Amino acid sequence: MEIVLSLVIGVLTAAGVWLVLRPRTFQVLVGLSLLSYAVNLFIFSVGSLAIDREPIIQAGLQPNLVDYSDPLPQSLVLTAIVIGFATTALFLVVLLALRGLSGSDHVDGAGDRP
Amino acid sequence: MNAWTSEWSMAHLVVAPVLVPLAAAGVLAAIGAQHRRVKAAIGLLSCVLMLATAVALLLWVDGQDRPGAFGVYLPGNWPAPFGIVLVADRLSAMMLVLVAATGLASLLYSLARWHRAGVHFQVLLQLQLMGLNGAFLTADLFNLFVFFEVLLAASYGLLLHGGGEARVRSGLHYIAINLVASLLFLIGVSLLYGVTGTLNMADIAAKLPAVPASDRGLLHAGAALLAIAFLAKAAIWPMNFWLPAAYRAASTPVAGLFAILTKVGVYAILRLWTLCFPATAGGSALFGSEALVWGGLATLAFGTVGMLASHNLARVVAFSIIGSSGTVVAAAGFDHPALTAGALFYLASATLAAAAMFLLVELMDRARGVDPDRPSALITDDRLPSFAEAEPPPIDANLDDLAMPLVGRAIPGAVIFLSLSFLVGTLVLAGLPPLSGFVAKVAMLSAVLAMPAHTGPAGAGALLFTLQVVLGLLAVVALSRVGLRVFWSPEERPPPRLRVAESVPVAALLGLCVALVLAGEPALRYMSATAAALHDPQHYIATVQAARPVASPGGVR
């Protein structure tokens, strides 16, 4: 599980960084989204990776990380998803506005040069 | 009111700087755009309340006359490491006052006409102030992230206020940079959480010395990523290429407010670095101090050279903001309380002066004959939106001989006012006597001279001294060049028309700079106490950890 998750985070991050460095605004947007997915998965992994463990305390179980999964990263991920989604949507709006104003989807608003 | 109830109510006042603008923004969002006067009145009321609260907190914190943190508030009524904590200490209180002052000034300025250029200006302004106040008050890392996002999301909207291609293009760059910085912020926070198992800043600082050596690499990587996010927001070289374009493109009152925005990054560095990596932190003592010092010095040099290379006043001021960030970050990196005290004084005076200068930019453009109200200017210059016809004059307005409304009545001596304001701003930004920039500079230079030889990286102290002296001269050259072009050029021009709402905030901000000199001794004493508390984080940690929830909900302790 750790290997799979690390691979996914690594591939998402690499693809995201590549796309953010591209000159087209839509590619930058997709790159930012991929990066935020990678970061969200990364936040998940800092608690403890576990399957079938409770995040909420139950009677009769010792309160330690052997019996429970850490609930805090999950709440952090939830907040980060909401905030990341909202700011990415805002970026999309500005992207469309720039495209409408400059008639080009280059990040500098410049047209294609031969 | 006896001392006990006053203590109790002051503790609850800590949450007011977040709640007041939030409530104001909620009310403002519900009011239609046609009720501009009501919206302006609510916005002004909220800003005045915020300023009063901030000053009250500052006086209260200063009056306690103890080192360390004060005014701990538990919004969820959970004990410290588990729940959310707001802390108002000397540094936070000072930043709150700066936020309220610049916020009130730019709101007042916008009332002359800029608040009509878009629909949700007032709401965004209040949310921006709420994010700033929250970021300065919060005592845990994830809420710092949340408040950062609140203030950034509002700043995206404010930067685009007024429209036009230049704003949208620089806004796109600004948003992209800040989104990437936010992602780095999250990675840093989660690494720190993974290593220490807590998000509370004081708790992290308390647990750092106990981190096993095998985890220290991970801890340092997390701290470094976090620092990159903060330094990008503080516009430290080489992560500051977005700033001059964005601040030049922003509408005038927004640029004035943005003068405090880079200081959030500077504040976060000051707060977290002094808290987590003091000289007593064992294996992590002074981690990254060289990066702060050299990065700050490079930024200072870059900012001043940028000032010299710019011909436009807005760009000159934007580069001076970069330079002031660099100064404070470099000074913090030395881990020397006296130097930090001077840097804090510099931070306060440079922020106020830069905000005033940004507001002055538009007025000086008008003095040069670039009258933004004239339709021809709207066609040739897309910086200004077409709201000249936006609002018909009120029916009961006084009309002059040409049946034009008397809203832009020239105030007497407008040119004298402009040149005097420009002179004061220049003196403060360049650090010349007799104004507050000079006091700050003398405090920093004498601290460098009195510093023990081994403080900071080798040669950095001498370099800081030299740069401060030489670059101050270059800043004078850059600013006076702009001033000469505006005020001493021999063309015949009609006197510019200034509105009272535009002149008062400029005068007030510069008046605060003058007041910082007149009250220089108590102000410097306050800054010294702040710096001493910052560099001795045990008091902060102890006070936060000692905070206990209120026993019964609704009960008075």
Automatic annotation (TrEMBL), chain A:
It is found in: Cell membrane. Its main location: membrane. Keywords: Cell membrane, Membrane, Transmembrane, Transmembrane helix. Signal peptide: none annotated. It is a multi-pass membrane protein. GO terms for cellular component: plasma membrane. InterPro entries: CPA3_antiporter_subunitC, NUOK/Mnh_C1-like. Pfam families: Oxidored_q2. It comes from the Bacteria. The chain crosses the membrane at residues 6-21, 28-51, 76-98. NCBIfam families: PRK09094.1. Belongs to the CPA3 antiporters (TC 2.A.63) subunit C family. This is Na+/H+ antiporter subunit C. The lineage of its organism: Bacteria, Pseudomonadati, Pseudomonadota, Betaproteobacteria, Burkholderiales.
UniProtKB/TrEMBL annotation, chain B:
GO terms for biological process: ATP synthesis coupled electron transport. The keyword Transmembrane helix applies. It comes from the Bacteria. Residues 140-367 form the NADH:quinone oxidoreductase/Mrp antiporter transmembrane domain. It holds the Pfam family Proton_antipo_M. The chain crosses the membrane at residues 12-33, 40-61, 91-112, 142-160, 172-193, 218-242, 254-273, 285-309, 316-334, 340-361, 410-432, 462-484, 504-524. It is a multi-pass membrane protein. It is found in: Cell membrane; Membrane. InterPro entries: CPA3_Na-H_Antiporter_D, NADH_UbQ_OxRdtase, ND/Mrp_TM. Keywords: Cell membrane, Membrane, Transmembrane, Transmembrane helix. GO terms for cellular component: plasma membrane. GO terms for molecular function: NADH dehydrogenase (ubiquinone) activity. PANTHER family: NA(+)_H(+) ANTIPORTER SUBUNIT D1, NADH DEHYDROGENASE. Belongs to the CPA3 antiporters (TC 2.A.63) subunit D family. This is Monovalent cation/H+ antiporter subunit D. It comes from Ramlibacter algicola.
